[in-house]
Predict the structure.
Amino acid sequence: MSVAVLGAGAFGTALAITIARGGTPVTLWARSATHAEEMANTRQNSRRLPGVELPENVTVTAEIGAMSANTLLLAIPMQQIAGFLAKNGHRFASGAIVACCKGVDLETGLGPTATISAACPGAVSAILTGPSFAIDIARGLPTALTLACRDEAAARRLQSTLSTETLRLYRTTDTTGAELGGALKNVIAIACGVTIGAGLGESARAAVMTRGFAEMQRLARQLGAQPETLSGLSGFGDLALTCTSEKSRNFSFGLALGRAETFDAGKTVEGAATARAVARLARQNVAEMPITSVVASVLENRITIREAVEALLSRPLKEE
Ligand SMILES: NC(=O)c1ccc[n+]([C@@H]2O[C@H](COP(=O)([O-])OP(=O)(O)OC[C@H]3O[C@@H](n4cnc5c(N)ncnc54)[C@H](O)[C@@H]3O)[C@@H](O)[C@H]2O)c1
Ligand SMILES: O=P(O)(O)OC[C@H](O)CO
């Protein structure tokens, strides 16, 4: 079994480290030759995971042509996947490609596995998602994630290849549910960050999380997901983690927005593009998504945070 990770950001590096610690050799690809050389020399990714050593059986490269493995983990941000695969997808025509990202493509409205399948129709596409901070995985702290793949046999194989002593994978064939849970929770986490940042209180945050979960389930059901997937690690589990921790970039981004502070534009905040992609679906009457819609409107500077709160509080009273 060979594993390769495309993308030497925080998550890709953490996955490479934990899988390699389990004894499987891993090739880790970085798009920058300087970054790859730096990691190979210092045996750590000081840009994203400082202080965590790369095991000996992790080989770092910037040569995309050197990336051949029967299991490829694609750990680059959602909005970059279609472009990356349009350029490089021909190299990965067969085998399994596991998306390690969370979001909805702003241009196509597709999720990670459909984006992979569109570019690499001969490959098996899967997604690895759920509650985990890269640093926790890299430190070997216990973590549980969802591995979703429509092909049951491939799901079992990937589950066993990618599970480690500290990273426990649960499998499902419901890719729609798994990827919608991961994508939508980021938007709700931004809303929760705004809530705390703007001083609206922890009770309000609990309301946003709960009603946010209701709209996540509503859209997922409408798009054919299984309800139990949304209640699992990739949905409720990741929502709970991301909405309550300042280690989350989506939550911290919302926090900064609520406090009218600036936020480091170099950080990956998947929920910002996802909010806009999903708000479009909501406008097409796919499902009622009030929190996601106001997050998108705030991010597009169409309404203020005060107006967003007023819009949510003035909605007609209804049954829970
Ligand atoms: N960091 C975490 O704790 C964590 C946990 C679970 C899931 N994720 C998910 O993993 C995905 C990646 O996040 P991350 O934390 O690793 O982000 P990151 O910002 O740390 O790394 C992103 C990596 O992608 C590379 N990249 C960006 N654009 C690229 C392109 N066009 N072509 C090739 N490479 C490109 C960057 O060079 C960088 O190495 C996100 O979807 C995120 O939601 C992250
Ligand atoms: O830092 P965030 O907000 O991208 O969250 C990281 C993971 O998605 C949490 O599961």
About this structure: The radius of gyration is 19 Å.
